[in-house]
């Protein structure tokens, strides 16, 4: 663990020293417009050297470059209509640390070392945020922003945590966290269910700035109402025992979405 009590570093920093934990990257590839194979090739070229294993969920057969020291495993077709959560990919990952991101070109592997640094500094769950200093987004419709703000208020009341980005699916965590998850194909938005579980179990959570880039392929019109309803259900299901009393105290001040 780093002795630095303030683990803020550039995203290009590497984890130093011997005994570095192994890292698995789980990439989810949704069918849709564009060329997922070309996007995947680009992403694999950008994977940092700390990552030793890439698990592709739904990746196109026969595509994706491999390099020395990097194992790429493909799990075949992913029926994303049955659930947005890449259960099989998380279960198949063998690294001590697991990084989860979409392979549609909206998330950059160049940010991975920053996530890993926070895990090495003592955090249990590290998630990207588009809404803190240094983060940004390319395309975020008004309806989705309003829904996100409403869900953030609920999450803050239920869990007493002041997170800024609830359903962004770029995150990293320790492998034992997977064993705590009730993995099921329930269609809940990729990042939100992980965050709800992390809060439920009282993990030490850190947010790091992340830049969401324009998608190169995959569906570009998220189902805001459907996603929001399922995320709300997950937040309520995972709530701690004293959460309802916090909800009754009224709206939080200074909430930002």
Description:
The structure is a single chain. The chain is built from eight helices and seven strands. 38% of the residues are buried. The N terminus and C terminus are likely disordered. The protein is globular, with a radius of gyration of 18 Å. Helix 4 runs parallel beside helix 7. With 257 residues, the protein is α/β, with parallel strands linked by helices. It has a seven-stranded mixed sheet, sandwiched between helices.
What's the SSE blueprint?
Blueprint: E1 23-28, H1 36-46, E2 51-57, E3 71-74, H2 87-92, E4 97-102, H3 112-120, E5 125-129, H4 142-159, E6 171-174, H5 176-180, H6 190-200, E7 205-209, H7 224-237, H8 243-247
Parallel strand pairs: 1-2, 1-4, 2-3, 5-7
Antiparallel strand pairs: 4-6, 5-6
Helix pairs in contact: 4-7
